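User: Before I run my own analysis I want an independent prediction to cross-check against. Here's the chain; please return only the structure tokens and, at the end, one sentence I can use as a sanity check.
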Amino acid sequence: MKNLLAASALTLVLAACSPASTDAPATQNVVVANETVPLTPVDPGTPTPVTGETADANTLTLEGLGALKIGQPEPENSGWAVRGAQISEACTTVSSPDYPGVYAIVTDGAVRRISVGQRSDVKLIEGIGPGSTEAEVKAAFPGFRETPHKYVEGGKYLTAPNADSGDPAVRFELDADGKVTVMHVGTMPVLGYVEGCA
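Assistant: Structure tokens:
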């Protein structure tokens, strides 16, 4: 213990006598129990991680959007709730005032699809979202299946090739000009619904 205290005191004295440097702080060593242990200084310019809301709150992933997760019930006390008339209790849509232009389809008590429309600034991590071009989608997601849109003449759907696997997948709706109007993340068959719960 005496050796440890002496070594610590010596380190502090030497540090106080060392000339100031404009470079990054030098690493010092301390002998503890006959082992040399480096002391790494803390850089005061290093930001401390902040908890809470992050930029990811507006990023749609295969897992979900913020607290709204594919395969789980809509989160309590989150703002996500049923609004407006519903076709049935077996399939409902939920939305949140925090995410204008976004809604989710819930069946069997779990979120099965999240849809992002043109009024939203939510994007995928690749930067693709409503307003993106067909070329941008195909560059980010080569190999997506192309099928004609059910209601928009000249429009189309671009769907991930793994969509039928049962895993969460991505689907885009494009207008006749080749722009994304809606993007969806979810599981089949709900991912393929063309009229909300149908």
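Sanity check: The first strand starts at residue 28 and ends at 32.
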